[in-house]
Amino acid sequence: METVRLGKTGLMVSRVGMGGIPLIRPPFNRAVKVITRALDLGINLIDTSPGYDDSEVRIGKAIAGRRDDIVIVTKTRWSSKKQALKGLEISLRQLNTYYIDVWLLQNVSTFEAYEMLLQPDGALSVAREALESGKVLHIGISTHSMAVAQKAVASGFFEVIMFPFNFVTNHAEEQLVPLTNKHDVGFLAMKPFAGGQLAEADLAMKYLLQFNNVVPLPGIETIENIEEIVEVVEGSWKLTKQDWQRIEDIRAKQGSKLCMWCEYCKPCPLGINIPWVMNIESMWILWGAKGFRKFFLDFIEQAKTCDRCGECEEKCPYQLNIMDTLAEQIEFYEREIKNNL
Ligand code: SF4
Ligand code: SF4
Fold first, then answer.
1. Which of 15, 107, 248, 330 sits 20 to 30 Å CA-CA off 235?
2. How many CA atoms lie within 13 A of 181 on its CB side?
3. Where are the chain's structural domains?
């Protein structure tokens, strides 16, 4: 498979990587086979996190004996220095490796959180220590906030950024891709299928492949998934007139619903955790019953109290139809999830 340079890391990575969340869904040995098949087809970048159930363990098993050919991206959800270092050791052990290629400071969604990680004893200093020790080779950041992403890319502190990007949630096209090019920061596109809500895998891949410094990270669960994606990558990526028409149709249908998880709509006066509830369907598609946490139920119950005051919609920079989408997500939960838990 064709490779591209991942920004200033200089790492040469496959044109698409593999997102590690759906790997937790199949039985263990089948997941290992899926990863092995992806590696055999030329995919050499795998994204995971110690927070994705046993995703790292499965990947660790699959890469045994070929570690040096693989670029591993994993993450730390910063809470304290002690916790971050402990998390790094867990990742190393689970992934069966001595080093992480790219360590991302995960989900830094507000300026306050961003400023905190730059403090003398903050996440960035811990990441730099890990860099010096050789346990981490490159430092990156993941965020759902465009403002934080832009600041992080321009800061010079990070070699890689992970940000949501697909043909519906496509604000990165103008607001982030040129900036990552300018600062030579590698761009890993999360949610290329909008968390499983875009069924058109061919279209989603072709769209992202138009950007030659963007590496999409499709979540992969089956051998068929990976073979379909590789076929697109190795075929023609040119978007035809019909493809653009399909994109426009899907944008018109889905564009007011797909939540970026940027949290600008918070706080809700009734305490509703809007981004989580907006994403219930996509979390169900990605994580399944295994990843469905009990606290989601509290969020759903809380969301049922929405009095349609409209405050959240005024704050959402993507003009999403939040109130109706919350109601649809609750309905989806009642119809599809409740009886399958
Ligand atoms: S419309 Fe509902 S979810 Fe939005 S702020 Fe008001 S109560 Fe909260
Ligand atoms: S509803 Fe809008 S403001 Fe709230 S997290 Fe989603 S995209 Fe952001």
1. 248
2. 11
3. 3-238, 274-340
Query: Is 146 touching ligand 2 by the criterion CB < 6 Å?
Result: no
How far is Cα of residue 120 from the mean position of the Cα atoms in its chain? 28
Mean pLDDT of 299-307: 96
Decide: pTM greater than 0.70: yes
Judged on CB neighbours under 10 Å (0-12, 13-18, 19+), 159 is buried
Residue 122: per-residue pLDDT:
87
71-76 sheet: strands from edge to edge: 18-19, 45-47, 71-76, 100-105, 136-142, 160-164, 186-190, 214-216
Strands 136-142 and 12-14: unpaired
Condensed to tens digits (0 to 9), the pLDDT of residues 251-276 reads 998 888 888 888 889 999 999 999 99
Ligand 1 nearest atom to the CA of residue 311, by list position: 5
CATH number corresponding to 3-238: 3.20.20.100
